[in-house]
Every structure is written in structure tokens, then in C-alpha cells.
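Quick question, first post here. What does this chain look like in 3D?
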Amino acid sequence: MVNTQQWLDANYPKEERDRILLLYLNEPNLEGELDLADFTKLERIDVSQTAEENKISFKNKPEEAEVKKCVDAQKWLDEWYPKGEKCKDEDKIWENNGRRYKTNFGKTRSQITELSIIGRGLEGSLDISGFENLEKLDCSYNHLTSLNVSNLEKLKDINCQKNKLTNLQLKNCPKLDSLLAFDNDLTELDISSLEDKVTYIYLNDNPQLKDDLSVFRSLKNLGVLWLNNTAFGGSIETLQNLDKLECLSIADTDIDSGLEYLPNSVGYFYCSTDKKKDAKCQAIYNLLTNEQGEIEFDEMTLGEEFEKIKFKYVSGFEEKLQVIKNKAKERLYCLFKDELQTKERQIAEQSNKVQELTEELHLSQSQIQQLSNLVLPDQVYDFSTLEREIKKLKTNELIPSLQNKKQELEQLIANTKIQLSEELEQILELYCQVLNEEDSALKEGKLMAYQTILQGKLSKEELQVLATKQTEVSQLEKQLNNLQNDNQQLEAKIIQV
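> Answer (accepted):
Ran it through. C-alpha cells below.
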């Protein structure tokens, strides 16, 4: 057994009781007397199916407060709106929570365009299927935990506020214009299938509903977005392209940055930490305070005659937003000013280098033209032809030089052999042959061995002179061979052209 008064004190704080219209008794083991003296505006008491009504009594209950036993939502709908049959709901004008609406008595599900089942004491899950022409659904002020309105392709307005919803399915509702789902127990909500016809979204007072603002970025026609007292976080920057957004409330959330990106269309903005003192939106709140660290608020009323909602908003917000945007631009400019100047200097330096290289190129082109006129007088300049002629000249220059070097080497070898015996002459010839080989560890080993043998008759200096002369001849031969090969390739290329 659960003590009724202790349960009441734990679930309905005394400081809030004078504003409560509906009392929901959903504790299975509730038993005893409830003192309702503080509930001065109470209109209805709903007793859950799990609670035993006969074990509960009331003291100081307002006379107008009606006690109602809750029912299973799906069973109730299927009974009063049976599939394939006409609606059995009473044919009368209902009044609930200040609203007046007419039932759909005598209509089938497919004929119904508006379904109002407000405050019927409905509990549990509800699946609205078969209402293929439904345009407006109002199931507010019940105790639903799950609601499925998927595939209602004509549905425009959903009002499911003030339930116990933990699950709300909205898939394939292409004409949805407004969603009032505030004051529930949602922890997540998939709105990815919503199209850009949506203009009103109220998700406030779902304390565990966690996401970031990026889920709304595709809703280009969104005009009103209420998220206060939710677990939404992140930056307002993701809303910067919603240029039809007029009203935004982020009080008691973890949305903590990006106010400077808010579109200029927003004229009504609300931010505070009244319910969550540690909410991260305090960072945005601080941007809007006056010299005393406070924000001045104005108040407006939204909604229809039967359900007016008072809405607080920051006074003079449009002017304050422009000041914040300008300061953000200044900070951004200061942040990147040095980097911009560095880039400008780098660009100037590169421009100077380009100019220098351009001048060098022009000079080189002029020199090449002069060289072409010298080598190929009276001929039109052609680089391949000029290259071929220059290499021919270089070849002709190298041939006698190589011949002279060879003669000098042969004379040096002959003079050296005079000092050697016949056996050492053979070693000397082998030494000269190894000098012509490609560099390798084996070559170095051979040279050291031959030098050791020859050093009995020849000094290191004499051997070094011989090696140097042999190297000069080898380099000239290689250079000449390369030039001759290049000339052959150039000849073939010119012929092809």
C-alpha cells in the first residue's frame, strides 16, 4: 500500500498545485484520503486503470472537479470508431478544457477529416490507422504513452500535448503543418521524414528529449520552434538558412552558441535558466543581459480563443541581435586579420617572384633568339633545329679535344712503361683497363691490388696522374657518345615533323 498523501506530495509539489487543472492517479497501490485543498483550479481527476478507485477518497475536492476512470486508448477507439462501420461516439457538442468540438457521430473512419478526442482519459498506445482523409488530430489532455500517425498523407495538424508520450511515430505525413507535442515524456523523436511544409513545432517540456538543432535544418518554412525545457544542445548555427523562422524558444536547454547566425527573420526569442540552473543556454542568456546582468522580457499571447498560450520573449531582441552579429563580425575580423595580412604578404612576394621569372624568361627568349640568328642565320627560329645545330657544334668541338687527350694518355702510358719490366707493363695495362670500368667495390679492390704491385716502381703521384688522365678521356668519350645519340634522336624527330 502507498500512502496517498505522501504520493501526492512527491508527484505534485505544493508550489505548483494552484496551476494544475488535471490530477492523474496512476499508482497501482494507492490507498487512502487525498487532501486537495491546494488544487484551487482543479477541473478533472483521472484514475488510472491500474489504480483501485474504491480505495481512494478525496478531501476538499473542488465541486466542479470531475472524477473519471481511465480506459485503454486503442480499445476505446476501436469500440467507438470501429473499422468499416460508422462512428458510435455521442452526437453532441463536447466542451473540455475550455474547448468546444463536435463528435463524428455517424461517419466512417474514411469520412472523418477532424478527430478530437480531448481529455477522454485515454491510456496506453494509440494507432490512428484507417483515417486516410484525416487532416486534424487532437488527442491532448490524455495519458497516452505511444501514438502512431504514420501514413496519414492528408494530416496537417497534430495536437498531442499533455500526455505521457515516450513514442511518437510521424512517418509519411507529407502535408503536416503543425506539431504540438509539448508536455510529454519523449526521449527521442524521428522527424527526418517531415517535409518543408511544417511551420509550427512545439516540443517544449519534454525534459529527456535529446538532439541537436541540425534535425530542423531542412524545414525551410518553419516559423515557430519551441524547445524550452528539453535536452537539446549544440549551436544555433544550423538554423541560419531558415529565413522564415519568426519565433524561437530555447530556455532551459543545452543550446550554448551560434546566436550570431540566427536569421534576421526571428523577432521573438526566449532564453532563460529558470527551471534548469545548470543549463548551458546560460551562455546565450549572458549575451542578452543589461548592465545589471538581467534580461527584460515582453509577453504575447498565441493560440486560438479556446486555448491561449502566453509567451515571454526578449524585449528589443531584433536590435540586440544586430549588435551581437556586428560584434561577431568584428571578432572574426580580428581573429583572421593577422592571417590575412600574412597571406597578402605571401601573395605580394609570389607576385614579385613571378615578375622576376617573367623578366628572366623574356631575357632567355631574347638570348635564344640571338643565338639562333648566330647559328642559323636567315632561318626561322625552331628550338629543335637550334638544339641539333648546337649539339653538332659541340660534337665537332669535342672530337679534336678527345683526340688530343687520348694522345696525351697514350704518350703518358708509353713513358711510364719505360720504367717497368715486361710483367709490370702488363699490370699497368690491366690497371688502365680497370680505370674504365663502372664504379663498384670490385673495381676499388682491383685498383688497390694493382697499385700495390706498381708502387714498387711508380710513385702514388705518378699513378694518380695516370688515373686522372684516364678519367678525363673516359668522361669526354661518354659526353661525345651522349651528344651523338641525342643528335640521332633529334634528326629522327625533325624528319617525322
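DSSP finds eight helices and 24 strands in the chain.
The first helix runs from residue 4 to 11.
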